[in-house]
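Much of our argument rests on the idea that a fold can be written as discrete symbols. Part of our work consisted of pairing the sequence of a single chain with a tokenised description of its backbone. No coordinates are needed to read the tokens, only the vocabulary itself. The record that follows shows the chain in one-letter code together with its fold in token form.
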Amino acid sequence: MKVIYQVAVTKVGKFAKEALSENMFITFKQNVPKDLEDYCFIHNHDELRCDVKAGDILQIDDKDYPITAVGNVASCNLKELGHISFRFDNATQAEYPGNIHVRGDVPELDIHSVIAIKQQ
């Protein structure tokens, strides 16, 4: 498998971990708008090497989560802003255009957690 995107969490917004209890989390690259900062896991940004698609793998701290659905603007948002909502609900249709859905239990995330997306 090849890594198409990889970042490390550099800051955790004041309310970012609350979303984990709702089986989701939100990311944004550094220089996040102030009104979003409290809700995001902020990371050093990486180049997205190709579009994300169902069947790819989300990897968080060496644990793999199969991607089950990708919203139609998710890759663009990830590429431009490092902004995405990851939902751990196994959905096969994206709920919102900027969502990426995965199978598995939501992980604990903190500063230095590594978030990667891999393709075959």
The radius of gyration is 13 Å.
